[in-house]
Specification:
The protein is mostly helical and about 325 residues long. The chain has one domain. Helix content is about 50%, strand content about 0%. The chain is built from 12 helices and no strands. Helix 2 packs across helix 9. The protein binds zinc ion (2 copies). The site of one zinc ion has 4 residues, from helix 11.
Amino acid sequence: MADGVTRPATTPVSEQRNARGEWRPSYPIRYAPLFTQPSNLKAMGKWIFGWPGFLWPVNLSLLLISVVSWYLTQPDIARCTTFEFGWIAQIWLRNQVMMWLYYGFFHWWLYMRKGEGLRKKYDSHWPATKSRLFLFGDQVYDNVFWTAGVAGLIWTGYEVVTVWLYANGHIPWLMWAEHPVWFVAWFFIIPLWREFHFYWVHRLIHWKPLYKHVHYLHHKNSNPNAWSGMAMHPVETILYLSVCLIHWVVPSHPIHFLFDLQHAALGPANGHHGYEGPIIKDKVPTGSYFHYLHHRYFECNYGESTVPLDRWFGTFRDGLPDGEGSKLKEEHKF
Ligand SMILES: [Zn+2]
Ligand SMILES: [Zn+2]
C-alpha cells in the first residue's frame, strides 16, 4: 500500500523504460519515519497527519468504509447467536458489493477506461489474455475468480464465525464508554499489526513446499493488476486473513474486527494495481512499488513500508539499480 511510502512531490517523473518495457520511479522506496533512527518527531507527526500519510487517504478511507458498513449493513447482533442463512447471506452480499466497488473502481479506471494509459505503469504489458497460465485463459478472469469468488467466501467465513462468537459472548467485547483510549488506539494498531502478521505469513509461504503448492498461484501475477490483490490459493487466503484472530483473544469491539478484516480484504487493490501513485490527475496517492518489486523479484520486500521488517531481516530492496538490497537476484524462474 502507498500509506508508508514517502515520495518527493517535486521529483520529475521519468518516462524512460528499460528494454523489457519496465518503468521505475527515479527515487528510492523509503520507509515511513516511524521506526527510523534517530527518531524525528516532526517527520513522524507530518507522516501521521499529512497527505499522503498514515491516516490519509488509505487508512481513514478504509475506516470510513468499516463505520458505514457497521451502521448500515451489519446484521443485528441479536440475530447472530445462531447460524442462519439470512444474516450469513447478508454479510456475503455486503462483502461482494464492497469488493466489486473497491477493486472494480481501480480496474475500471486503470484497465478498462485506461485513465492513466501506460504512464507510470510499472510493466508496459496489459493483463494476459489467451494464456494457459491462467484460469479461463485470461489473467483478469482468473484473478476475479480467486479474489471475489474464493477469497470473498473465506473472508465471509471469518466474519460469520467471529460475529457469532461476539454475539454469544464467547470472545471479549471492548466498550467505548469503559475504555475510550484503547478503543481509539486499536485503529492505529491494526494497520501496524497487519503489516507484522503479513510479513511473517508471507515468509512462511515462501518456504519451498508451501510456495510450490500454495503461494505459486499469487505469483503467477508477475505483472499484477488490481484484481490480483486477493488472487490466492485458499490456504494462503486462510493464513492471510487469520490476521483477524487477534480479536478472539485481545478485547475489541466488532467494529475493530470489521476494520481489520476489511483492511486486509480490500487493501490489496491499492498494492497490486500496478501503477505508481498518485493517480487520477496526480491527486490520489495509491499504489505500491514496494510490493510490485516483490512480484517482480520474488525474494525481497515481503512486508510493507511502515514497519521495516524487510530491512531488519535483510530482505529490503529500494528499487534503484544500485540501491539498498540490489544484490538480490535479478531473475526468478517461475
Ligand atoms: Zn501480491
Ligand atoms: Zn510472495
